Amino acid sequence: MSIIIDTGCANLTSLKFALERLTNDVLVTDDPAIISSASRVFLPGVGSAGYAMGILEQKGLIPVIQNLTQPLLGICLGMQLLTSGSTEGDVACLDLIPGQVQALQAEGWRLPHMGWNTLTDISDHPLFEDVSQNEYFYFVHSYGAEVSDSTIASCEYGGAFSAALAYKNFWGVQFHPERSGSAGSQILKNFLEITS
Q: Domain ranges in the chain?
């Protein structure tokens, strides 16, 4: 079973509908036991890092997520929460992927970075199988993870930021695959086909 963690700070419905087009085995929950026993886990999120981490702490989900050994995909803010911390309020995050989240270096560019953009430097990673560099993905954010050894794809908006991260069993995408048409659907399909 694939689990979408109910973070209380994301549009869970659009992600659930996108996944239901690919599988009939998906559930939204904040139950620690169900999350821990899932085959794979999605961590969505929108809004601020501090607020989202507060909800995860309130629900007792921080140690649950940190101890997962199955594949986990963070989406948008969910990816940012996987890093060590965010300068958005100087928040300590889940510390599962090395690196920091910072305000986008986009002087002269409108923020948030909202709309369609392509990826650069896509690595040979299972998450991007059958995805080309010409594909467009949908972004909505003002903060981004720095480019690091964990970056498996980057994006340019004023400056470079990590569009996707991977470290051990924890992966993340800054864009919204559920709102990115066929390319986003391919990302979700690739993740669903990954085995532990």
A: 2-192
Length of the chain: 196
Average pLDDT for residues 25-50, to the nearest whole number? 95
Contacts of 53 (CB under 8 A, 6+ apart): 62, 81, 91, 92, 93, 94
Let me know: does 2 contact 26? Beta carbons within 8 Å. Answer: yes
CA distances from 138 to 19, 81, 181 (A): 17, 19, 9
Q: How far apart are CA 85 and CA 76, in angstroms?
A: 15
Which CATH superfamily, name and number, covers 2-192?
Class I glutamine amidotransferase (GATase) domain (3.40.50.880)
Q: Number of H helices and number of E strands within the chain?
A: 6, 13
pLDDT of residue 196: 59
45 token code pair: 């999120």
Determine which helix (DSSP H) or strand (DSSP E) holds 33, and give its type and residue range: helix 32-37
Q: Which residues are catalytic?
A: 76, 176, 178
> In percent, how much of the chain has pLDDT > 90?
90
